[in-house]
Amino acid sequence: MAIAEVTVIPIGTGSTSLSPYVADLQRVLKEQKGIKYTLTSMSTIIEGPLDEVFAAIRAIHEAPFQSDAQRVSTSIKIDDRRDKESSSEQKLRSVLEKLQ
């Protein structure tokens, strides 16, 4: 399973507020099949099979253009572990266990 951290920044929107665009992206993700996603204060974490993760990233990258953004900058970081099952929850739990 792949875990991706994605930040989509619409440019040329006429406002410094991005929350309407972030809300749109979350609605787009809700329609995507085969993934799990978590909104954070700075990005969105998307988990699932790599093909579905890439499809979700493409969908949210395209979304701001539908809301009249003239340019979109998308940053992606992917952790694709193949030796065993992985998830965001598992990764956090592993670190927390080591802190005890």
From TrEMBL:
One of its GO terms (cellular component) is cytosol. Residues 4-95 form the Thiamine-binding protein domain. Gene3D superfamilies: 3.30.70.930. Residues 71-100 are annotated as: Disordered. InterPro entries: MTH1187/YkoF-like, Thiamine_BP, UPF0045_domain. Pfam families: Thiamine_BP (PF01910). It comes from the Bacteria. Residues 77-100 have a biased composition (Basic and acidic residues). Belongs to the UPF0045 family. This is Uncharacterized protein, MTH1187 family. The lineage of its organism: Bacteria, Bacillati, Bacillota, Bacilli, Bacillales.
